[in-house]
Fold this sequence. Notes:
The chain has helices at 2-15, 18-36, 44-60, 65-87, 92-111, 116-119, 129-136, 160-181, 184-194, 196-201, 206-228, 241-254, 261-283, 291-312; strands spanning 125-126, 144-147, 150-153, 233-234. It is mainly α. It has a two-stranded antiparallel sheet with strand order 1-4. The protein has a two-stranded antiparallel sheet with strand order 2-3. β2 (144-147) and β3 form a beta hairpin. α1 (2-15) runs antiparallel to α13 (261-283) and α4 (65-87) runs antiparallel to α11.
Amino acid sequence: MEFWTGLLQAILQTALSPVTAAFVIAAIGLNIHFGFTGLMNIGQAGFMLVGGYGFVISVMHGLGVFPAIIISMLASMLFALLLGIPTVKLRGDYLAIVTIGAAEIVRMVARLANMTPLTGGPSGIQSPLFREGLNALSPLPEGRTTFLGMTYVNTGVDDWWSRIVAWSLVALFLLITWLIMRSPWGRVLRGIREDEDAVRSLGKSPFSYKLQALMIGGVMGGFGGIIMSLTAAINPDGMGRATTFNLWMIMLLGGAATILGPLLGSILFFVVRLVITSAMTEFVPSHILSGQQTEIIAWVLIGLMLMLLVIFRPQGILGNKKELSFNV
């Protein structure tokens, strides 16, 4: 009984974690790219790195939280422009190769030893400075608060204020996505996804709309990087290829081209991994499976479940098969 109680509490902690929220936000941006526009972006982690480093470096050089956020957004938009202008005309796997290559270029540049004064090099940047501005905005009183059996400091490093900020951003971006996809602009994006030539025949520029979608989704990815940095650390290898693949898994699990799919997919992704790891640690003797082997098997099982999902329900949990007509 104690195990199940502890597991339930761990599930709640994982579901409300700022890291989970960061993945939701980045997956919302990826959903705009692929789910609603049909862009095969395999480099969303690159936008997270650009946005996260834009925020952290700005704060480290003395800027306040809001100017740093603006710089982060501009950096993400600039990266989208530099990436999108020569590539959004590409389709399918060609665009996928270019985007994953661009994300790796960003990661490797951030890892360069010559970039250590700016990006921290391979070790990244670890400093409480880029949390202090955010903590200064907290309206919460000092002390600790217990909610649903979870106790955290109100404002600090692993705190309620970070969770409030992170999940408020999730709600904001879900609302923005819902509004823009119900607008004429969003309907053009769906048209591009389904039949680009038909949209072009109506006098619309698919290139322009794709570039706009890439920028909007990229800014959301940048906000995901900002939330990831709220642990008072940012590292280039912490947002690499595996991060992008996890984002795709989250989006496909919840359902591409759905509003709440990234939210459901992210929570399920982290919770399922936690449940598998916890259950195996509890019920499988350590002489049979070590902690490292348990983590590996958890990833294997998650990959197997994703394969089964794609085979038997390719639209995801919340998706609609009618939304899976991609002109790629």
